[in-house]
Please model this.
Amino acid sequence: MEARLDYFSSTVGSKVLKYLNSANKAVADSSLPHKTQELVKIRASQINGCGFCTDMHTKDAAHAGETQLRLNLVAAWREATLFTDAERAALEVAEQATRIADAAGGVTDQAWAEAARHYDTEQLAALVSLLAVINAYNRVNVCSQTPAGSYQAGQFG
Model:
């Protein structure tokens, strides 16, 4: 299977990815816990059906020490007992923000208030930014049909 579009060979595509990567770096350097960032990226990618990003972020999370059991249960986090209250709040916001077209009003006040109990303003800004960035990456890869499975942990630095 090959991607239908090599985004890096396009002038516009490579510029867009450059800016997305810069935004992603700002989030990665934030105080939002790295494990939470990876869980959120995995969950959004699962919802969006982005095999490439799901592959990448599960491998990067495992490489950073995340357990296989927690990775296996990200899609069923509501029923899993392995996630902290803070992670659960971030995953709820992630789901509602990713499914924004399905939820009248986007992220509910209740979900936001729960996230705000666990994260400060900078971390909330990082969470919202992370969701914007991962959803953009997902759309690029889903539209391009970027194949999944061959990513190596840390491949993009």
Observations:
- The chain is about 65% helix and 0% strand.
- The radius of gyration is 15 Å.
- The first helix runs from residue 11 to 28.
